[in-house]
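Before a colleague's protein record goes any further, I have to sign it off. Would you go through it and say whether the fold makes sense for this chain? Take the sequence as given and treat only the tokens as open to question. The record follows directly below this note.
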Amino acid sequence: MNPEDYRKEQLTIDMAKANRNALLITIPTLLAFGIPYFLVWQEQFSIQYISEAFKGFSISDTFGLTLSIFLVTAAGIIVHELIHGIFFALYAENGFRAIQFGIMWKALAPYCHCKDPLKLKHYRIGAVMPAILLGILPGIVSIFIGSLEWLLFGILFTVAAIGDFMILDLLKNEDKESYVQDHPSEAGCYIYRPKDEQAQS
């Protein structure tokens, strides 16, 4: 990629809006996975099944469950960023040397930053893979194996990918010959559009 052949523009998302959107898509995501799950595993929602599941449940069990949820969520967030890094590195000119991990302190959010510009199609792959691997696939698997834990995990990490979905939405109408580079300090990216595209228009 020769930067002189491209026009650069910053595209970022509002993290406050991303949080609001996460709340908005929670119910549709819950219904998308939850309805098929309920139709296949109705017996898990019977009073008898629920009472058996919670029989003998104690305060210590509640603490252990809460701690487990926290640890699984924290681990999932880290893995989410690692997945970004792995797929970005596959297409980055400098491989893993182009990948940087950190925390965006003002939003208390971990991030994965790819310093190399990527072709638009490759950036899209790296952006969407955490949602697929941690959200959509576990949600689908839960319907086949009857696991409420995997169902909730899939819903959580589908919703958690809202920022990635919003960035992909910003790029939906971009030319396939464009390049995309992660923004180093904001939630978003730079788009490099071919200059000859402007000349033709």
User: Anything to note?
Assistant: The longest helix spans residues 59-91. The beta strands are 6-12, 99-104, 109-114, 118-119, 179-182, 188-194. The helical segments are 15-40, 47-53, 59-91, 120-145, 148-159, 162-170, 195-200. The chain has a mean pLDDT of 88.
